[in-house]
Write a structure and sequence with these properties.
alpha/beta, Ribosomal Protein L15, Chain: K, domain 2, Four Helix Bundle (Hemerythrin (Met), subunit A), 2 domains, 4-stranded mixed β-sheet
Length: 340
């Protein structure tokens, strides 16, 4: 069982990170603003190319502490890590499965079933907790998505599976606005590059952070994050991380976004609309989103498959380990994450 450690997020433009004895230190304007033991940090995520000392980077490379660089909006740019030490036989089996459509399909089906079930659960949860916001359309979408779960489990090709997943996603995002109670914000449709409203800006930011966490978890198991089963090969794309991330979009993305908007933890003034229509978050809004994400990771949950209590932040590591066990042949099927 991998110990659950924290991620250090660097957002300030003037930050400088270095190693001081057995601690990581963050300085802004030559003043120490943060210090933590090296053993308490698993990943360092920098928004923009912040200054890191060579000694710190060498220590991270030698001790499997990942350093990731994201754009200010959370788009993944690059990752710095040490020599790969994963199990070559595990990766070889992974590549063979990815090249065999039937085997890839056997992994992709349960992942998409979990994604759709989790989206459906989110709709039903809101209807149950907020009966005053009851929506016939959302209720109808939840019902259709329930019917599509059988189609997903019997999909005969990856393209067919992707088609069902795309249909369910379109239906879900078509009614997502009914879950937003804060009248200062609206959600018309999913927009990615660029995000065209604050809700989409928050979602894209959370998805980028989540993808980085899943990628890091996969690397600790020896799996290759770039070779997936649902997402095809593309240079620079962490396809397997994107596969497993599908299970967590509703739980660690959409739910957090909805809470931030509905509880008015972000304001309309926290977002800037560019001439192109792109919506960008302020530094303060990014910090608020990160704090909400980190707080969620510290919550305790009982894993639906293992039946063990753990922190939410450990979930990507558990799913990565379960994926590795399946690929090695230790399990008959891969058990994805279903949220309660």
């Amino acid at each position: 069982m991998k110990k659950h450690l924290n991620t250090l997020y660097i957002t300030s433009d003037d930050a400088y990170v270095h190693k001081e004895r057995e601690t990581f230190v963050v300085e802004v304007d030559n003043k120490k603003v943060f210090q933590a033991p090296v053993h308490s940090i698993e990943n360092i995520v920098c928004f923009g190319f912040k200054a890191l000392s060579p000694a710190l980077m060498a220590f991270c490379a030698e001790n499997n502490v990942g350093i990731s660089y994201l754009s200010e909006n959370g788009k993944f740019l690059a990752r710095v890590c040490g020599a790969q030490t994963g199990n070559v036989l595990l990766r070889k089996a992974q590549y063979a499965m990815a090249d065999d459509e039937l085997q890839a399909l056997s992994i992709a089906r349960p992942i998409i079933a979990a994604k759709v079930a989790n989206y459906r659960n989110l709709l039903l949860r809101h209807q149950r907790n907020h009966p005053e916001d009851y929506s016939d359309t959302a209720d109808s979408v939840a019902s259709v998505m329930g019917d599509r779960l059988s189609d997903i489990r019997h999909a005969e090709t990856l393209d067919g599976l992707r088609g069902i997943e795309g249909e369910c996603a379109a239906m879900y995002f078509g009614v997502l606005s009914s879950l937003i109670n804060n009248k200062d914000f609206e959600f018309k449709a999913r927009s990615k590059r660029p995000p065209l409203d604050p809700a989409n800006a928050i979602l894209s930011f959370l998805y980028a952070i989540l993808a980085n966490d899943v990628r890091s978890a996969l690397e600790t198991t020896g799996l290759d994050p770039q070779v997936g089963f649902l997402h095809g090969l593309r240079s620079g794309r962490p396809s397997l991380a994107l596969d497993i991330m599908e299970e967590f979009r509703a739980y660690l993305g959409d739910r957090i976004m909805l809470n931030l908007l509905n509880l008015k933890q972000v304001r309309k003034e926290d977002f800037e609309i560019r001439e192109s229509g792109e919506v960008r978050m302020s530094d303060g809004a990014r910090r608020t989103v990160l704090e909400a994400y980190q707080k969620r990771k510290q919550e305790e949950i009982t894993h639906p498959f293992l039946g063990e209590k753990m922190t939410v932040g450990l979930l990507p590591h558990i799913q990565a380990q379960l994926m590795a066990r399946y690929i090695r042949g230790d399990m008959k099927e891969y058990p994805p994450f279903y949220m309660n």
